[in-house]
């Protein structure tokens, strides 16, 4: 059985080869563990396309940015963290479905976006 990190790596590569080339920029929906992990897993070229993270967690939004501390770049990349309503599509969504009692799904639906064009699920 493939190891979880192998599956993750293949999923990231698939995202980079098939979806991200069609987007000049994108937002990662989830400034938590999964969203940050995706950001760190992207190639430098794909990371440059990330214009923001978005979330509903006031603490993450209040901090204002995510700093990629392990980056070799100087200065270290700092990516804004916005409330989801202030963020611009397209989104790569790193939120597991059915974990928020429908709150996430309601938030996503409220934006009237089209899956495949305006967002992709990556969880």
UniProtKB/TrEMBL annotation:
One of its GO terms (molecular function) is glycosyltransferase activity. It comes from the Eukaryota. This is UDP-GlcNAc:betaGal beta-1,3-N-acetylglucosaminyltransferase-like protein 1. It comes from Delphinapterus leucas. The lineage of its organism: Eukaryota, Metazoa, Chordata, Craniata, Vertebrata.
């Amino acid at each position: 059985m493939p190891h979880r990190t192998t599956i993750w790596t293949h999923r990231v590569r698939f995202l980079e080869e098939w979806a991200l080339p069609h987007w000049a920029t994108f937002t990662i929906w989830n400034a938590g563990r999964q969203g940050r992990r995706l950001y760190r897993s992207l190639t430098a070229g794909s990371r440059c396309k990330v214009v923001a993270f978005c979330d509903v967690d006031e603490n993450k939004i209040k901090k204002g940015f995510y700093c990629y501390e392990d980056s070799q770049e100087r200065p270290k990349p700092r990516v804004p963290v916005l409330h989801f309503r202030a963020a611009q599509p397209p989104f790569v969504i790193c939120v597991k479905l059915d974990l928020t009692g429908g709150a996430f799904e309601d938030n996503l639906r409220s934006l009237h976006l089209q899956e495949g064009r305006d967002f992709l699920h990556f969880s």
